[in-house]
Design goal:
Blueprint (H helix, E strand, L loop, with lengths): L1 H16 L4 H12 L2 H17 L10 H8 L1
Helix pairs in contact: 2-3
């Protein structure tokens, strides 16, 4: 269906653009929390919110900066 295709495309783009910055985002989470467990929670929450609102990301802009504003 069209919905399944759109979700697959969203997932593929998210993997390509957002997940490419996962190491940098985790480092920022660790820096902010100064605690591994809290950093992991913040990291997970950041990427869940990023995926939910990925339709608001503007292709061609700085995805890492966008992720850090979500964090």
């Amino acid at each position: 269906s069209a919905d399944t295709h759109a979700m697959g495309e969203k997932h593929a783009l998210f993997q390509e653009w957002a997940l490419a910055h996962k190491d940098h985002v985790y480092t920022a989470c660790l820096y902010l929390t100064r605690n591994k467990e809290d950093a992991e929670d913040l990291f997970q929450e950041t990427f869940l919110r990023a995926f939910r609102f990925f339709h608001q990301f503007t292709p061609g802009t700085n995805c890492r900066a966008w992720l850090l504003t979500i964090m």
